[in-house]
Amino acid sequence: MGPNSLFGPLDPASDAGYTDAPKRKGFFTDTSVCIGCKACEVACKEWNDVPENAFEMLGTSYDNSHSLNANQWRHVAFIEKPAAKPSAPSVDLGMPAVGAPVSDVPQDEKPDFQWLMSSDVCKHCTHAACLDVCPTGSLFRSEFGTVVVQDDICNGCGYCVAACPYGVIDRRRGPEGDPKVGIAQKCTLCYDRLTDGQRPACAAACPTESIQYGDVDELRERATARVELLHERGVMDARLYGNDPDDGVGGTGAMFLLLDEPEVYGLPPDPVVTTKDLPRMFTRAGMAGTALLIGAALSFVRRRP
Amino acid sequence: MSPAPDASTHGDGSGTQVRHGGSPGRSRGRSRGGDRVMVPDADFTSYYGRPIVKAAPWEHDIAYYLFTGGVAAGSSLLAGGADLTDRPGLRRAGRIGSLVGLLLSIVALVHDLGKPSRFLNMLRVVKLTSPMSVGTWILSLHGPFAGLASAAELVGMLPTRWQRGPVRLLLRLGRPAGLVGAVTAPPVAAYTAVLLADTATPAWHAAHEELPFVFCGSAAAASGGWAMVTAPIAEAGPARTFAVGGAAVELVMAHRMETSMGLAAETLHTGTAGRWMRASKVLTATGAAGALLGGRSRVLSVVSGTALMAGSFCTRMGVYEAGMASARDPKYTVVPQRERVERGEQVRHQG
């Protein structure tokens, strides 16, 4: 345990005890170029043999896979954001623009909403609460700095499910007969592909390079450059999520470029690893337990029968 | 594709109803809703009103275990004290309470696993960052000693002619085992609070300062109540004192917890959890008053002891249900975090 082992910036693989680990690997999901094709969802299912998710026609835009869960390790969110129509046609100043070229469609015939699409995934936190609280050692830190479940160790206690500040990991409930029913499941960052020098399946399948895979250091730089470029082009809503090593989870291995507040996409705006407060919790429990012992002793010294 | 711009934003105190039918949006300054809203109306955005954190995939077994574990721990303490002060009736009540509590606890814990056959995997590692691992080891330390003391108690009830050889040895081990059991009991009662608090479940994590005291008080009240029901009146004096003290701590600290939790405290006042918590307060206060005033009456002793146990049970159920409710509604995850961001107080590591 180092001084930052529960909170603060660190390299997770070396903190976990690896001596000559490869560079930390992760994702940068640039939602400004996501087209909502769900190729990532399909590729993930195919490669990792993830069984069917409970399919529900929810009427929530194109999103019927509803959440990240044990049977859904990539999840594409669809948001139809109401957009105010400009009252008068804007004057073309010849400035560089982002997105599709200016169309001939008259303003009032354009849809009055904006698509937000984002492929969500396990964040592979620097300080992963799921891993911290796992009582069997089933969840472990890989040499790539990622967080992976060992299926043959997990006994399905479900503690990781309640601990994750993003609601990613989940205990598999079905389909009946699946050997992994009852145990915790989530994205492995395609551990088996990484050990073979390959990209994770979702990143390989993404047609627009919205999902980029690489060294976390380099992805952070790439993300910063991208958000600066978008700001220059006037997309002032662009922001990064999870790229700050000083944040509540020590920065994530999977970071995002978002076009609205995180909660619009179903992400917590300021997540904190719960074990940050663990020393305090144990201190308070120690005080309460001591009080209980003293209280019991005092109950007996008062009077004799 | 027709966009439906109104949906899934909860603008009023009663607005946890989710409409799946359009885009996430936000509403500013809507609502004059609820009658007794304790916290200013939460105005927030979510993804179609869906939860962010996941509720623990636990059944009510875990709430039952919180209760039975508390009874077991408190009973071990009472049995130890009774043994040292020569109160055989109270000792017997304590040791049997401990045994019953522990057995029910183990059943509840194993039953709640996704793979019960892998129960022993808990013993693969010792992990200080996992309260469940720490708790497993606490139980593994406490359980055998408390169990041994209870076995000695049961054997002591056999006819004298059977108390020979190994049985005699077991009887001799009763006292030392019981004392080790008593000393290792408080962690059993206290760690379950950390178990709940060390999660992303808003109502549990927000309670982490006071919950250990609530749970330890609740354990004392419940085990004292158990002894008031089962032990001879003449010997149950310490059990009554223990129960009344526990009930007082539980009531005071639960009140303090509700004021320090922020928005998540709402879940302790509303819905199923609210009903459990209200019942808990009435039962615990009534039971404690009964123990104070009528402890020398057999009938009143049984009634108030039962009320104290029921009050403790309601507390555990209430805390459990409040956590579940706080995880299911994204409000309790988003609003406190969004407010931190708006104030410029995001949680950041200070180098």
Can you name the CATH architecture of chain B?
Up-down Bundle
What is the number of helical segments of chain A per DSSP (H or I, 4+ residues)? 8
Characterize the quaternary organization of these chains.
heterodimer
Number of domains of chain A: 1
Strand coverage percent of chain A: 15-25%
The radius of gyration computed from the alpha-carbon positions of chain B, rounded to a whole number of angstroms, is: 23 Å
Count every helix of chain B, treating DSSP H or I runs of 4 or more residues as helices: 12
Looking at the overall shape, the CATH architecture of chain A is 2-Layer Sandwich
Helical residues, percent of chain A: 10-25%
User: Alpha-carbon distance between the termini of chain B?
Assistant: 50 Å
CATH T-level fold name of chain B: Formate dehydrogenase/DMSO reductase fold
For the record, the CATH class of chain B is Mainly Alpha
Query: How big is the Rg of chain A?
Result: 23 Å
